[in-house]
């Protein structure tokens, strides 16, 4: 789960990492109230879960109330790479002498943690990696030994951070490592980590990805979940325990198994259609799951046809067929449904559906035929 910048900064603050004072605002008036409280100048920042907000006009400095109104008004509602800004973070503006980069993430092949540090921050690290790779100092960290202050000191020297920044940065990186490990992050990134003209070091941005596998020991993550879904379809699916990702096409997809669901998207594309979603209903394709899946897809106004692609393995196709019929009694579905049913007990399954077929419930013998039919109905 990715956090918004303001949540990431709150997370950092728990581990003693220095951030600027600030608060969230959902309206221009709220932004103004925050600015008046923390004092000018302030920086107004779009809260969306994508990088490059600065370049997209989502980060602006304001020296007075008038500028807060102007920038907050412009940034709210702004579309940044498909993410519409609904919330702002307003913080005390910092003077910047230097911008550094720091992050911890997993190095999966080496079974270690990987620290990345650069004296050239502020810009995208991918760009630094491409144009100036020697400007990034990598640190491989044994998860059993962890990161101590001595190692951190050597690291900031090797990365050639400014002398005056080194001691503070070394201490901050140990805290960031603690946040990353104890806080169960997959990624903890600060870009930029800044040095101010009066020689203090602190985090100006926060990018945190939490490891969902650890959510059982973090009841406090629940508050992040509330803001997680911008897509109402995904929220609806999550409430029903479905593995769903919203897309922007017209063919609703239901498949059992993530691999088959991915292939289904490919085949729909291949025959000239566009998928409205990814949805893997997993092994147990009973009436409850099928009804929930159809409900979520039916709630999507872009959907013009539904492609149910089931390959029975442990899942038996006759059970799926019964599940579909029962689900259709519970929810009324606007779009025609095209089914491809194959695998274990496929003949029995098709037999169960046969008396119920009509122009809204169609079966096709192969995945390709079914994709063509569903796409034709959608177009
Ligand atoms: P991103 O573009 O999404 O990574 O957003 P950032 O939070 O990293 O902000 C982008 C850029 O805005 C930073 O690299 C800084 O150059 C600038 N910026 C952000 N906060 C401040 C601030 O408090 N003062 C000043 N002078 N610049 C800031
Ligand atoms: Mn940034």
Commentary on this structure:
By secondary structure, the chain is of the alpha+beta class. The chain contains 13 helices and 18 strands. Strands 7, 8, 9, 10, 11 and 12 form a 6-stranded antiparallel β-sheet that branches. Strands 1-6-2-3 form a 4-stranded antiparallel β-sheet, covered by helices on one side. A 4-stranded parallel β-sheet has the order 14-16-17-18, sandwiched between helices. The site of manganese (II) ion has 2 residues, from loops. Guanosine-5'-diphosphate binds at residues 43, 45, 51-54, 59, 93-94, 96, 99, 122, 191-192, 204-205.
- The fourth-level CATH homologous superfamily of the largest domain is Succinyl-CoA synthetase domains
- Indicate the proportion of strand residues: 15-25%
Report the uncertain regions: none
The third-level CATH topology of the largest domain is Rossmann fold
The top level CATH class name of the largest domain: Alpha Beta
The count of helical stretches stands at 13
Short description:
This protein has 13 helices and 18 strands.
Key words describing this protein structure:
Rossmann fold, Dna Ligase, domain 1, about 35% helix, about 375 residues, 13 helices, 6-stranded antiparallel β-sheet, D-amino Acid Aminotransferase, Chain A, domain 1, binds manganese (II) ion, binds guanosine-5'-diphosphate, 18 strands, alpha+beta, 4-stranded antiparallel β-sheet
Describe the secondary-structure layout.
Layout: H1 5-14, E1 22-25, H2 28-38, E2 42-46, E3 59-62, H3 65-75, E4 79-80, E5 83-84, E6 88-92, E7 98-107, E8 112-118, H4 125-131, E9 136-141, H5 149-158, H6 163-182, E10 185-195, E11 201-203, E12 207-210, H7 222-226, H8 232-239, E13 243-246, E14 251-255, H9 258-270, E15 277-280, H10 287-298, E16 305-312, H11 317-330, E17 337-343, H12 346-353, E18 361-363, H13 367-378
Helix pairs in contact: 2-3, 5-6, 10-11, 11-12
The structure holds guanosine-5'-diphosphate and manganese (II) ion.
């Amino acid at each position: 789960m990715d956090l918004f910048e303001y949540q990431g900064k709150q997370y950092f603050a728990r581990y003693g990492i220095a951030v600027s004072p600030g608060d969230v605002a959902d309206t221009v008036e709220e932004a103004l109230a925050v600015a008046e409280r923390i004092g000018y100048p302030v920086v107004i920042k779009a809260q969306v879960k994508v990088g490059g907000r600065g370049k997209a006009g989502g980060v602006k400095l304001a020296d007075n109330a008038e500028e807060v109104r102007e920038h907050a008004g412009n940034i709210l509602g702004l579309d940044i790479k498909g993410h519409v800004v609904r919330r702002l973070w307003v913080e005390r503006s910092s003077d910047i002498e230097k911008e550094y980069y720091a992050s911890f993430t997993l190095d999966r092949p080496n079974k270690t943690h990987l620290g990345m540090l650069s004296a050239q921050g502020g810009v995208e690290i991918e760009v630094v990696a491409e144009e100036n790779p020697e400007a990034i100092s990598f640190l491989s960290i044994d998860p059993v030994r962890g990161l101590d202050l001595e190692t951190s000191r050597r690291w900031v020297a090797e990365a050639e951070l400014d002398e005056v920044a080194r001691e503070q940065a070394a201490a901050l990186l140990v805290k960031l490592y603690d946040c990353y490990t104890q806080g169960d992050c997959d990624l903890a990134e600060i870009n930029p980590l800044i040095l101010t003209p009066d020689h203090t070091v602190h985090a100006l941005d926060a990018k945190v990805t939490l490891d969902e596998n650890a959510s059982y020991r973090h009841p406090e993550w629940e508050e992040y979940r509330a803001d997680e879904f911008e897509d109402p379809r995904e929220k609806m699916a999550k409430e029903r325990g479905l593995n769903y990702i919203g897309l922007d096409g017209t063919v609703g997809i239901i498949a059992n198994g993530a691999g088959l669901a991915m292939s289904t998207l490919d085949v729909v594309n291949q025959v000239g259609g566009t998928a409205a979603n990814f949805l893997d209903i997993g092994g147990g394709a009973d009436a409850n799951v099928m009804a929930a899946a159809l409900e979520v897809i039916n709630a999507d106004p872009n959907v013009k046809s539904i492609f149910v692609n089931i390959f029975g393995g442990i899942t038996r196709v006759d059970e799926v067929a019964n599940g579909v019929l029962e689900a259709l009694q519970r929810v009324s579905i606007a779009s025609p449904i095209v089914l491809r049913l194959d695998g274990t007990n496929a003949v029995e399954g098709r037999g169960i559906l046969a008396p119920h077929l009509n122009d809204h419930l169609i079966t096709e013998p192969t995945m390709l035929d079914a994709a063509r039919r569903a796409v034709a109905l959608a177009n």
